[in-house]
Write the structure tokens for this entry.
Amino acid sequence: MSQKVHIETYGCQMNVADTEVVAAILKTVGYDFTESPEEADVLLINTCSVRDNAEKRVIGRIENLQALRRKNGNPAIIGVLGCMAERVKERLLTEYGVDLVAGPDAYSDLPNMLSDVESGHKAINITLSKEETYRDVIPLKLPGLHISGFVSIMRGCDEFCSYCIVPFTRGRERSREPESIYREIEHMREVGYREVTLLGQKVNGYHYIGKDGAEVDFPDLLVAIHRIAPEMRIRFTSPHPIDMSDKLIHTMATYPKICAHIHLPVQSGSNAVLERMKRGYTREWYIDRVATLRKSIPHCGISTDIFCGFCGETEEDHADTLRLMEEIRFDSAFLFKYSERPSTYAARHYPDDVPESVKLRRLEELIALQNRLSLASNEADIGKTFEVLVEGVSKKSRDEYFGRTVTNKVVVFPKAQARIGSFVNVRIKSATQATLLGEI
Ligand code: 5AD
Ligand code: SF4
């Protein structure tokens, strides 16, 4: 009987895509999958290091799985994949008792590593590569509805923003060969996907130079995908403001299946803070890019990431961030407080000097403001009609579906005759801060 693997995924969407790569690699060597950790011979956790609390959550889960293993008296292998494998390294074997540690560029080695563990050794591979893009792997979509899926188009990051662990855990930036991306998207189209989200740590920095010297940049890639899968919606995340070129904005405005939504992390509204963060742009640059985007695509949804309490952040800096949020009127935002990450530039050069209580208060102020902005943005949609991709049954009511508008807002509506996976026009009748409610 074949061995059963259970994989859990923490962190960003890139990890969701990587889990599919891991599943494909393990399937080719004969492993099966199970959703139940109790049944599994191999327990894998794909992990995140972006903030300390993300790592704490994973450590808690490892401890649970150890307890499960003791209780079952079963000899399941426990393996840690992804960013924490890369950052915490051998200590996962020695302090946390796991059997296998594989960094983001080591997944092709997993079959060998698992055999090593089966023959009684511990296995670790945290070598980062300058080339690995898993170009020959067609990621295996795990059970669930196959309507909207992720495709990773580049790996790693060379930006070295001063607060960020990603360049250390995911290594150098590299773009995946266009043909390999097209193959994956064609496959998704064949099995019925209606939407693809292109993924990269700095997705609009995509740049591939072929052996013949031909170059494909991010807008070129979008146009090619639009041609290959003309009925699929195209999204991408996360772009960097410095690479928000006029060409990209023009491409988004020209091609109807590229969704009118952008998740554009700003991080802070203060120029002094942006400079210490080494973000490479100013508040004015960001505002200009959003203005250009809105001029080309007036209804474009805009969301962002912001974190407060970075080293040296003053009350005035924080007020600048609140003012920027008001000025842009983000439709939604992911909001965090600074968490120092070992070995980053900030950890080595700036004291983490904003007291925890101040970080918390500022975070609450960001959240309160964004709640107000999100509600206002959603209320402004009442009475409008949107094309919605039906993604599934609403969690709150079996008689309702949920889906998303092109602007990336979640809409809940009575099922009527619609099917999951179809596009319907929904008229918005009311709104909360998080959701639009409407009728087909
Ligand atoms: N502390 C807090 N938030 C962080 N982010 C990245 N690094 C840190 C950190 N050290 C946030 C940024 C990024 C999002 C994915 O996580 O806002 O865009
Ligand atoms: Fe977390 Fe960043 Fe790694 Fe994604 S790339 S899992 S957000 S640390």
Q: What stands out?
A: The pocket of iron/sulfur cluster (ligand 2) is lined by residues 11-12, 14-15, 48-50, 82-83, 165-166, 169-170 (CB under 6 Å). The first strand starts at residue 4 and ends at 9. The CA atoms of residues 65 and 78 lie 8 Å apart. The radius of gyration is 22 Å.
